[in-house]
Design a protein that fits this description.
Elements: H1 10-26, H2 34-52, H3 62-81, H4 86-96, H5 103-113, H6 118-140
Length: 149
């Protein structure tokens, strides 16, 4: 006995295509943001410069650390407030988390130990630099939104 193949009507096929593509757009990533890119690139430089100072007493640079943490929080809040930006938001969360081994954890350890050794600082700078590069790469890889009139 031969089975008869069912085919979708052209109208139903078109409806499925529209619904599928609409669903994909909802799950898409946010467009490129020059502001987000600027935050990431400038904070990378600022972070690495400050991390170099971690061989000196933390108290000497406490105000700089607090200022940097505030700027990172601003960048995080900016990322979090953009629609369809969950991936970037999670990257900023990891970067600033005090319990991770990136910028937040580094700054916490510097505060707890007062001074850090040069080899540790250099190793941590590599990890933090890579984390910023991931954020920068994601942002620079986004499609720029184009206004259509």
């Amino acid at each position: 006995m031969k089975r008869r193949r069912r085919t979708l009507s052209p109208m139903l096929s078109m409806l499925l295509i529209i619904l599928t593509s609409a669903g994909l757009r909802c799950a898409s990533i946010s467009p490129f943001s020059p502001t987000a890119y600027q935050y990431a690139t400038s904070l990378k430089v600022e972070s690495l410069v400050l991390m170099d100072k971690a061989t000196e007493p933390y108290t000497t640079h406490q105000a700089e650390v607090e200022a940097l943490k505030t700027k990172v929080d601003i960048a995080y809040e900016y990322a979090k407030g953009r629609p369809h930006n969950a991936i970037s938001t999670r990257q900023w969360e990891s970067l600033k988390d005090l319990n991770h081994h990136l910028l937040g954890g580094f700054l916490r350890r510097w505060q707890e130990e007062s001074r850090l050794g040069r080899p540790f600082v250099e190793e941590a700078k590599g990890l933090v630099s890579d984390a910023f590069d991931t954020i920068i790469g994601l942002e620079s890889g986004k499609v720029q939104a184009v206004d259509v009139l």
